[in-house]
Amino acid sequence: AHPVIVASGPRVHAARREWREDRFVARFALFHHVVKDELVRPAGGELEVLNSSAFVHRLQSESRNLLWFTNDQENPEFMAALAPTYEAAVPAALAAVDGFRVFSAGTVGSSHSRHAHRESWLLQLSGRKG
């Protein structure tokens, strides 16, 4: 199966405005996240937890391949707060899909290890999927 990537449309553009760095940091500053490497493990083998604001700063200042990756099992409060900022951009055909939700962010050129999914879809609000 190939993933579906939703990357444009008026509702996506509205969601992108909500995810501009200044708005995103202000809205989600108090949530905490584990700093991970490209293998989605604690970076450097050490458990480091940062709030959203500090995480954005770390991504911008670090040359290592760091990954901000979380999901609705690891961080349900963050994912629940995040949902209203993108749900309107989800196409009707996908809105009823109730599965594992993830949030992933990294710096330009960063990535994480090759992996496979069963059926999936991705709402991409910034950057590109390589």
Give the N-to-C terminal Cα separation: 17 Å
- How many β strands by DSSP? 6
Strand order of the largest sheet: 1-6
Largest sheet: 2 strands, parallel
Label the structural class: alpha+beta
Dominant shape: globular
Describe the structure.
With 130 residues, the chain is α+β, with helices and mostly antiparallel strands. Helix content is 29%, strand content 17%. It contains five helices and six strands; from the N terminus they run E-H-H-E-E-H-E-H-H-E-E. The protein has helices spanning 10-18, 21-28, 52-61, 76-82, 92-95; strands at residues 4-6, 32-34, 49-51, 67-71, 102-106, 121-123. Strands 1-6 form a two-stranded parallel sheet. It is globular and about 40 Å long. The two termini are 17 Å apart. The mean pLDDT is 82.
Break the fold down into its secondary structure elements and pairings.
Blueprint: E1 4-6, H1 10-18, H2 21-28, E2 32-34, E3 49-51, H3 52-61, E4 67-71, H4 76-82, H5 92-95, E5 102-106, E6 121-123
Parallel strand pairs: 1-6
Antiparallel strand pairs: 2-3, 4-5
List its salient traits.
130 residues, two-stranded parallel ribbon, two-stranded antiparallel sheet, 5 helices, alpha+beta
Outline:
The protein has 130 residues and is of the alpha+beta class.
